[in-house]
Design brief:
Length: about 200
């Protein structure tokens, strides 16, 4: 993960990303090991108006809940391979914690009556953020006009194709492929910062 360096294990490693999407055990274990500290920080320190879970048991339970949700097939498939996985995982963590807090509140009524819960409202912020991220990355893809760069953007960053595969498909050297990857990566970093997206 390497927060603060601009590096992100899952985004920057297409072989790992492809294996993770397939649900291979070694890939799941590698992702869990690298991103577990981030999840523990979120669970312990909290975010926005939430100050974190106090008891170790609650922290452990929530950490497991978040990772299980992140490792579901649908969640693995939704990751676009372009935005930092740390940001994507943070969104999942926030949503799962909000759901748990809402559930706790419903059972905390002193009169025993359930608190009305609108699931759409509960997940609204997370849904909006996810939608905004998708729109933003779609616009970035549209801004790439060079055919080779567009192919690398889709095949490497989204599909998880290896450099060797791209070299064969496009008929250019791996060195040229790596140059395009670096260029696109830097462009994405600048584009996200321009639109006030914090890059982990």
């Amino acid at each position: 993960m390497r927060t603060g360096t601009g590096e992100d294990l899952l985004r920057d490693n297409p072989q790992l990303r492809e294996a993770f999407r397939r649900g291979e055990k070694w890939a799941l274990a590698a992702v869990c090991k690298d991103y577990l500290p981030l999840v523990r920080i979120i669970v312990r320190e909290g975010f926005a108006g939430f100050r974190g879970f106090r008891s170790q048991a609650d922290q452990d339970d929530m950490t497991q809940t978040i990772l299980l949700a992140a490792f579901e097939e649908s969640a693995r498939d939704r990751y676009d391979g372009i935005t930092p996985y740390s940001a994507y995982l943070r969104g999942i963590a926030h949503n799962k914690i909000r759901q748990q807090l809402s559930k706790n509140a419903r059972f905390a009524r002193v009169d025993g009556a359930p608190v009305p819960c609108d699931r759409l409202a509960e997940d609204f912020e997370g849904a909006v953020l996810e939608r905004e991220a998708c729109v933003l990355m779609a616009r970035f893809r549209e801004s790439v006009t060079n055919s080779e760069e567009k192919s690398v953007l889709t095949r490497y960053f989204v599909d998880g194709a290896a450099e060797e595969t791209l070299s064969a498909e496009l008929g250019i050297t791996r060195y040229q492929i790596r140059k395009i990857i670096r260029k696109l990566h830097n462009q994405m970093q600048r584009y996200l910062r321009k639109h006030n997206v914090v890059v982990s």
